[in-house]
Amino acid sequence: GLFAAIFSSLYPALVRGLVLLGAPLHFGADAYMRGSLSVAGRRAAARAFAAPLFAVVDKRCPLVPPASVLPFLDAAASPDQRLAYYAGDIGVGIQHVGPLVGRSAHARLWPEIVRWLWQHWRQAPAAASG
């Protein structure tokens, strides 16, 4: 359906974005948040992150607790931020991946994410040519 078509066309860019974001956010003993992280000789800081931002938080997750996500959202310069909460799923063995594979995530969270991605993807060509 439409969901699968949109997701499959956006997935490669999504993964590239997560890979690029993942390294500075997870390494460097909070150097990214302090603005002291150097990537390829350039300074990287949360306060300079101005791209559209969609964050998913699971209040019960010990690996990426809200206390590690919410300060980033507060620090980020992006005026276009969206925050969604994942409430968990029964039957997901590794709860940290629940937002990716859980039944309620597929029913409620992913349609919201895909709508947001679709909206931004549709706006991107107009913004780039304008």
Helix percentage range: 40-55%
Strand content: 5-15%
Mean pLDDT: 77
CA-CA gap between termini = 32 Å
What is the H/E string? HHEEEHEHH
Largest sheet: 2 strands, antiparallel
Could you give the order of strands across the largest sheet? 1-2
Anisotropy-based shape: globular
- Can you count the beta strands? 4
Secondary structure tally, helices: 5
* Radius of gyration of CA atoms, rounded to a whole number: 16 Å
SSE-based structural type: alpha+beta
Q: Which stretches are poorly predicted, pLDDT < 50 over at least 5 residues? A: 18-28
Description:
The longest helix has 27 residues. The termini are far apart. A hairpin with a 2-residue loop joins strand 1 and strand 2. Helix 1 packs across helix 5. Strands 1-2 form a two-stranded antiparallel ribbon. About 8% of the residues have low confidence. It is built from five helices and four strands; from the N terminus they run H-H-E-E-E-H-E-H-H. It is an alpha+beta fold.
Summarize the structure.
The chain contains 5 helices and 4 strands. With 130 residues, it is an alpha+beta fold. The N and C termini lie far apart (32 Å).
What topology does this entry show?
Blueprint: H1 2-26, H2 31-34, E1 37-39, E2 42-44, E3 53-57, H3 66-75, E4 81-85, H4 98-101, H5 103-129
Parallel strand pairs: 3-4
Antiparallel strand pairs: 1-2
Helix pairs in contact: 1-5
